[in-house]
TrEMBL record:
It comes from Shewanella avicenniae. This is Uncharacterized protein. Belongs to the glycosyl hydrolase 2 family. PANTHER family: BETA-GALACTOSIDASE (PTHR42732), BETA-MANNOSIDASE (PTHR42732:SF1). Residues 1-19 form the signal peptide.
Length: 941
């Protein structure tokens, strides 16, 4: 039987075909695989008594469980009694319906075939958290610890043909405390483990076995661990593999496409043994072409060493590509690339664990590519093989990280040794995949820098197929020490010269669209990628609640919904989501465009396109945690400013006055391919849809990189009424286009009226209202009780970072007659910047006043907040504004125009407030409350 089996596989090798079991990782063509998937028995051992080893010897009557799977899937463990309440526990993250931390024993009887006699027999447990121990017929084989790679066991001396009992003890408890962040603010006992390889904030701390659970028999001297090293400089391919008895000799090889099409075959003469591995180099066959995001050419290389006299072939998947850096530029195959990245933080809201099949990852990558992304950073974890296979196939770039987020790097020797081994396992198991281009030692690490240097140098010395960095950003001072001398690339949110992301800029600097990060970035002489840009919170989408049909329950969402119902705000929930999401999208657009405008930048990593349901319910996504749309922005719209080729313009501000000239310069960020003799078309339309100017720029050559000063837009602005203008630039004959807005206001408008008493004084307002007059009351916002005005929404999470003015933008009806002379959307846009900064968000009683301009509160407090309200006061009528619409209006055109619009409304028949408030209630707003300062890095205080 075995002779027939080997003959079949020898024939497949001759045809360039391979037979792998389960994945594209190296496997032998003479292998026979026995899947252990299916029914097992499981018994929990929460006290970890040790006497449970008797279960491995004698068997046990446990509960039935289907593997691959988890205890959560089987509804085993402690059932949650948590209720949907707005508190730190509920709002921390999604709730596990069942939870178990500790040892669990899994047992299954197997029958080993007779023809496995004399073979090497291995057990693979593809993914486990965190420690496994295997017993065969009661005898311990050994233990394995890994969060990133398969737990593999050699069972050759334990399994003879016939019946055997296999027992696996899995302990998902914390094995190396130095893996996770520790500080006085987040002590260990509070369970604030946040490295995404081991946390309940993203993937859960599941107990079970996922992916392949296989016994594999193979010939004794089979080839194993095939590694492929392309060299563009030498136009060659170097191959290494392991054998139990490696020896020099000849090696037959084939290279084929995934569909089995033979590309090349031959025999490498005089393969050598180096460092215990068989090594040979061949010239790159003509049929092997480069791999990148546009040409994801993947191949399988099969080797069959002839030194053993039997068929001992094995295969590996590879792509012919080379990642490098030169003069500070990130290069793939010698050409500049730009990483349009997103964090993958192990967020899987149905299962609590990553997909283990390629199709699951293909679905994620399809959505990511639809939104213009070409890169994932795997924040403090490494995905399974299926994720790499999918990325190889579609052309996607990965940054992998050790399972590590610590403020005390190097303090614990056992942890350091474990991490060093984890990195080795990552390289060995996933190193062939062309999608794997970068590797960092963890997230935001602090501690002993020599430990980080040592880790980086170890990996660089043995595997040049990836670029390496000591950390994905660090808060550790002084900032001048970063990047380290061993780093191949640098991920950061600031340099020693200042910010390189908008979170530290957009609320303090007036809107300008002619800026980039060159001043703070160009001195960096290695590739520079901006760290975790965005983090703009979006109001929870209540329609998401029914989607949680798996092991995690959205008690946080349910608690928010119940509070909205209690406070009479539930009918506005969808509008809160949409308007806060629109503001976030506007900010993400400017974040991305500034990065694209910076010639010394090599990419950005969003935090993030989809929601992060942990760390205090950080709903920072324009998509939900399922990668589904929130209805805020389409993939097509997002791709306008986030793709391989993006038209860009630079202009100085968002708000103009009639009589000024709008000036913009046109450029294109091109990371696609060289394009000759192109035509760019630009146009400017107003909010009525009328085209007020347009032109073509012909004979444009677009090279790879930043193509600047391609043409100018100059438009004299002459308006009698306020206008929102839209600029559009498109590359003719393509789908590449982009749009921007600016606003133009007339200089001469009425901001005073004899029919309306306009005052900053409560006393003056009271006297006028008692006389039945119409009053516009605009007191000094600094003296009002309320929340300090901000343009940007909540940073990350109001639970995780409570020390911030936690509002989420404006909400208004663009068709409200009070806004008839002030063009606006229902959400905050750049023309509101000055007014939101000079404001207080006041809490109102909607039984007494009607908001005209509402402020969306954060989803923890859910207050009725507003900036502008109307009401009756006695016989008088009132509009109250907590936005400064009084001071310096000659230099604040948007504020001037809004006041003009409000006064016009107040003099019209449409102004008929229905609700009544007392002057005493208004006066109660005068008690200023203390505001806390806010820092985006206060997690490390």
């Amino acid at each position: 039987m075995k002779a027939k089996y080997n003959a079949i596989f020898s024939a497949l090798i001759a045809l360039g075909l391979t037979a792998c079991s389960g994945s594209d990782s190296p496997s032998s063509n003479t292998q026979q695989t026995l899947s252990l998937a299916g029914d097992w028995q499981v018994k929990l051992d929460p006290q970890n008594t040790g006497v449970s080893e008797k279960w491995a010897q004698n068997g046990f009557d446990g509960q039935k469980i289907t593997l691959p799977g988890t205890l959560d899937d089987a509804k085993l463990g402690t059932k949650s009694t948590m209720k949907p309440e707005i508190n730190n526990d509920v709002m921390a993250h999604l709730n596990r319906e069942y939870e178990y931390i500790g040892a669990a024993w899994y047992q299954k009887d197997v029958t080993i075939p007779e023809d496995w006699k004399g073979d090497t027999v291995a057990l693979e447990l593809e993914r486990v958290i965190w420690e496994s121990e295997v017993f065969v017929d009661g005898k311990s084989v050994g233990t394995r610890n890994s969060l990133v790679a398969s737990h593999n066991y050699d069972l050759t001396s334990f399994l003879s043909p016939g019946k055997h009992r296999i027992t696996v003890r899995i302990d998902n408890g914390d094995k190396f405390p130095g893996i996770n962040i520790t500080s006085d603010k987040y002590p260990r006992e509070s369970s604030q483990q946040m490295a995404h390889s081991y946390t309940n904030h993203t993937q859960i701390k599941w107990n079970g076995m996922l992916g392949d659970i296989n016994l594999t028999a193979s010939s004794a001297n089979m080839a194993d661990d095939v590694q492929v090293y392309p060299s563009l400089a030498n136009n060659s391919i170097t191959v290494t593999f392991e054998q139990k008895a490696p020896a020099p000799g000849n090696v037959a090889y084939t290279i084929s496409k995934p569909d089995g099409t033979l590309v090349a075959e031959g025999e490498a003469k005089n393969a050598e043994v180096k460092n215990g591995k068989v090594t040979f180099t061949i010239a790159k066959p003509d049929g092997v072409t480069l791999w990148d995001e546009f040409n994801p050419n993947v191949y399988q290389l099969a080797v069959n060493p002839t030194n053993s006299g039997t068929d001992t072939s094995a295969t590996a998947t590879f792509g012919f590509r080379e990642i490098s850096e030169a003069s500070g530029d990130l290069l793939l195959n010698g050409q500049r690339i730009f990483l349009r990245g997103n964090l993958d933080a192990a967020i899987f809201p149905l299962t609590g664990h990553p997909p283990m099949e390629k199709q699951g990852w293909l679905e994620i990558l399809k959505q990511a590519k639809a939104y213009g992304l070409n890169h994932f950073r795997f924040h403090s974890w490494a995905p399974p093989a299926a994720a790499f296979e999918a990325a190889d196939e579609v052309g996607f770039y990965y940054q992998i990280e050790l399972p590590h987020w610590s403020l005390h790097v190097g303090a614990d020797e056992a942890t350091t040794n474990f991490l060093r081994a984890e990195g080795q396992r990552i390289i060995d198991e996933y190193g062939n995949h062309p999608s794997f281009i970068m590797m960092a030692m963890g997230n935001e690490l602090e501690g002993d820098l020599d430990t980080l240097r040592s880790l980086v140098n170890d990996y660089k010395a043995q595997d040049s197929r990836h670029l390496y960095a000591s950390t994905a950003f660090s808060f550790q001072k002084p900032s001048e020490q970063w990047p380290l001398d061993v780093d191949d690339f640098y991920i950061t949110q600031w340099t020693k010269k200042g910010w390189v992301r908008g979170q530290g800029i957009f609320n303090t600097n007036a809107p300008s669209f002619d800026k980039d990060y060159t001043e703070n970035a160009e001195y960096i002489d290695i590739p520079l990628v901006s760290h975790e840009i965005g983090q703009y919170s979006v109001y929870p989408d209540m329609s998401e609640i029914p989607k949680y049909t798996g092991v995690l329950k959205p008690l946080n969402f349910i608690a928010i919904k119940e509070q909205l119902e209690q406070k009479g705000l539930i009918d506005l929930a969808d509008e809160f989501t949409y308007s806060s999401g629109k503001l976030a999208a506007i900010l993400y657009k400017e974040e991305i465009e500034r990065a694209l405008k910076t010639p010394s930048f090599d990419g950005f990593q969003l935090l993030q396109l989809q929601d992060f349901p942990g760390q205090g319910t950080a709903l920072v996504g324009l998509l939900n945690a399922f990668w589904g749309s929130k209805g805020v922005i389409s993939a097509e719209e997002f791709r306008e400013f986030n793709s391989e080729l993006v038209p860009l313009i630079r202009y100085s501000k968002a708000v103009y006055e009639s009589g000024e000239t709008f000036e913009a310069s046109i450029e294109v960020a091109n990371f696609f391919k060289d394009l000759k003799s192109q035509t760019l078309h630009w146009s400017v339309t107003d909010n009525t849809g009328t085209v007020v100017a347009q032109n073509d720029i012909s004979n444009v050559d677009l090279t790879i990189g930043n193509n600047v000063a391609l043409g100018n837009i100059s438009l004299a602005l002459d308006v009698k009424e306020a206008r929102q203008m839209t600029v559009r630039v498109a590359l003719d004959g393509t789908n590449y286009k982009n749009t921007w807005s600016f606003w133009v206001y007339p200089q001469e408008v009425t901001t005073q009226s004899g029919a309306v008493v306009s005052t900053t004084s409560f006393d003056e307002a009271e006297a006028a209202l008692k006389q039945g007059k119409t009053v516009f009351l605009n007191p000094d916002y600094n003296g009002l009780a309320g929340t300090d005005g901000r343009f940007v929404p909540v940073f990350w999470s109001p639970v995780h970072f409570p020390n911030q003015p936690s509002t989420m933008g404006l909400l208004m009806d663009p068709k409200h007659p009070a806004l008839a002379a002030f063009p606006t959307s229902s959400h905050t846009d750049w023309q509101w910047w000055d007014m939101t900064i000079k404001s207080k968000s006041i809490e109102v009683d909607e039984s007494q006043v009607t908001p005209i301009i509402r402020v969306i509160d954060n989803f923890v407090t859910n207050r009725h907040l507003a900036n502008v309200v109307e009401a009756k006061v006695g016989n008088g009528k009132l509009v109250f504004s907590s936005i400064d619409l009084t001071n310096d209006l000659q230099h604040r055109p948007a504020a001037r125009q809004l006041k003009h619009s409000l006064l016009k409304y107040m003099q019209s028949d449409a102004f008929a407030p229905e609700k009544t408030v007392t002057i005493d209630v208004l006066k109660s707003l005068q008690t200023a409350n203390e505001q806390k300062s806010f820092k985006t890095n206060d997690i490390y205080d």
